[in-house]
Design brief:
Elements: H1 4-18, H2 30-40, H3 45-58, H4 62-67, H5 70-77, H6 84-99, H7 108-112, H8 119-128, H9 139-148, H10 158-171, H11 177-190, H12 209-213, E1 229-240, E2 243-248, E3 258-264, H13 269-278, E4 283-295, E5 299-310, H14 316-322, E6 324-327, H15 329-334, H16 342-350
Parallel strand pairs: 1-5
Antiparallel strand pairs: 1-2, 1-3, 2-3, 2-6, 4-5
The protein binds iron/sulfur cluster.
Length: 353
């Protein structure tokens, strides 16, 4: 990492030249900064401009906001969406009026304790209004920092977010934190944009890790959380002369573990029978034994437990193709079976083989 001073110097010089004139940049008043920051969450700058002006005309001070009927506050917010933001604004205004004599808390922790104010907003108000040396890290700043410092781990992970917070905090200049934080946000909003950033006009192009590695367009890395998909699975306990059929998984999921014969994605008995026929397993259906459920990270198995009996022992070659074995009770107890097979195993042990 280059010396913080030169990093800050380059960014601040760029900001003075390139910053967009925005109404909330003409003030240090914590009330006004706060209103703008809350409005800017999930809303475009152009839309916020008009709302910001009208809201401050209607509620020019913290006490005016605290004393207003809730309906008036919601009306002034109409069209911005996420109405909990407006309700929290008023709640926090009431706390400031009643518990702090109408004066904004001047510490990061004091701001953080107010309703609707999280780490980002507390950081923005304390640095912009009070000049405190704390970072204000919104989504834009996470992206800029991940690229600049070359963080190539999942940005959604709390550990990575802590790492970025520490790096950004270290990069804060001793003086001019207010402008530095705003400059970082501005860089993220106008230059280090999502998708392909405009490194060619960036004040950090010579020291930025991702720019050097030419992978800025791939950062930050965000690993999508997929909610598990449910699927029907027929789990068949196929018995024959004191033995039961087990298969060793070759698939990625549960690889190397033993399962009973199963059909993923389907528990219709006709199709189960057809699949067994196709695999040259001649069986008679005996009974439905019950159901079970297992939740994997990306999948939920809704299992139907079925009992079948082999009409004749398949040839070894048939078993080999399937990766299957016929095992005795004591053998079954020694094999590694996944947790997903627990209910099926219990049902199997109760059966007459
Ligand atoms: S050089 Fe490119 S990737 Fe790096 S901070 Fe600037 S715009 Fe973002």
């Amino acid at each position: 990492m280059p010396h913080q001073t030169s990093m800050a110097h380059a960014l601040l010089a760029w900001y003075r030249m390139a910053k967009r004139p925005l109404p909330w940049r003409e003030t240090r008043d914590p009330y006004r900064i706060w209103i703008s920051e809350i409005m800017l969450q999930q809303t475009r700058v152009e839309t916020v401009k008009g709302y910001y002006k009208r809201f401050l005309q209607r509620f020019p001070t913290v006490s005016a906001l605290a004393a207003a009927p809730e309906q008036d506050v919601l009306k002034a917010w109409e069209g911005l969406g996420y109405y909990s933001r407006a309700r929290n604004l008023q709640k926090a205004a009431q706390v400031i009026t009643e518990e702090h004599d109408g004066v904004f808390p001047q510490t990061y922790e004091g701001l953080l304790a107010l309703p609707g104010i999280g780490a980002y907003t507390a950081g923005a108000i304390s640095s912009i209004s009070f000049g405190l040396r704390v970072p204000a890290i919104d989504g834009n700043v996470y992206r800029v920092a991940a690229r600049y410092f070359g963080i190539r781990d999942d940005i959604g992970s709390p550990a990575v977010q802590r790492q970025i917070r520490a790096l950004v905090t270290d990069s804060l200049p001793a003086e001019g934190v207010s402008d530095y934080n705003q400059a970082l946000m501005e860089l993220g909003a106008t230059v280090c944009i999502p998708g392909v950033p405009k490194c060619g006009i960036c004040p950090w192009q010579n020291t930025c890790d991702a720019c050097g590695e030419q992978d800025a367009h791939l950062l930050p890395i965000r690993i999508k959380k997929v909610s598990p998909k449910a699927m029907n699975v027929a789990v068949c306990l196929i018995t024959c002369q004191g033995r039961i059929l087990v298969m060793r998984r070759t698939q990625k999921m549960l690889h190397g573990l033993y399962v009973f014969w199963l059909l993923e994605g389907d528990s219709d008995r006709k199709r189960v029978g057809k699949t067994m026929d196709d695999q040259e397993l001649r069986c008679s259906f005996e009974a439905v034994l019950g159901t079970a459920r297992h939740v994997f990270t990306h999948r939920i198995w809704k299992m139907e437990l079925l009992h079948y009996r082999l009409l004749k022992i398949p040839q070894q070659a048939v078993l080999d193709v399937l990766g299957a074995r016929l095992v005795t009770r004591p053998e079954l107890l020694t094999l590694p079976l996944p947790a997903a097979m627990r209910a099926a195993k219990e049902a199997a042990l109760e059966l007459d083989w």
